[in-house]
Amino acid sequence: MHCFLTEHIETPIGRMTLIARDGVLLLLEFEDASDRILRQVRARFGDVELQAASNPFGLSDIVRDYFRGDIHAIDTLLTDGGGTEFEKRVWAELRKIPAGTTVSYGSIARKLGDVNLSRAVGTANGRNPIAIVVPCHRVIGADGSMTGYGGGIHRKEWLLRYEGALLV
């Protein structure tokens, strides 16, 4: 059985659960998606024990720094979202999207070598277990529309405004 450290973090847009192991961020999700949290962790790692910790590996403070205005604080965090090889490729592309910018699913598909992968990119985006740090909120529809976000469209819009990508 794996033992992971966890902490709950208060943010301006809702409480989040952070799960980490050995200095690596494994999950960062909004708690109102708590039904997904344990299911995701068990699907990726099997039987796990979550041990409450204060600021595991300093990761909670880094997430708090992001919400205090240092939007680049999270840029170099080590992450392990698990996932398929394709999901890992998509999530790696997401990490390359600079704060304050947005891209479309199609542009990520093109970077992966096949514009026809847009729908698969959307599916992988939706399975991302590490909100904000793996910035799936920075992916929008080709027409500029706010497409789905696991944390809710209101949070996606808030994050994009906060990072300077939406001026309205």
Explain the overall architecture.
By secondary structure, the chain is of the alpha/beta class. The chain contains six helices and six strands. A four-stranded mixed β-sheet has the order 3-2-1-4. A two-stranded parallel ribbon has the order 5-6. The longest helix has 12 residues, at about 35-45. It is globular. The protein starts with a strand and ends in a 5-residue tail after the last helix.
Estimated helix fraction: 25-40%
With strands numbered from the N-terminus, the spatial order across the biggest sheet is 3-2-1-4
Number of strands: 6
Uncertain spans: none
Bin the strand percentage. Answer: 15-25%
H and E order:
EEEHEHHEHHEH
Q: Count up the helices.
A: 6
- Sketch the major β-sheet: 4 strands, mixed
**What structural class do you assign from the helix and strand content?**
alpha/beta
- Oligomeric composition of the shown chains: single chain
Using only CA atoms, what is the Rg? 15 Å
Termini separation (Å)? 48 Å
Shape call: globular
Mean pLDDT: 92
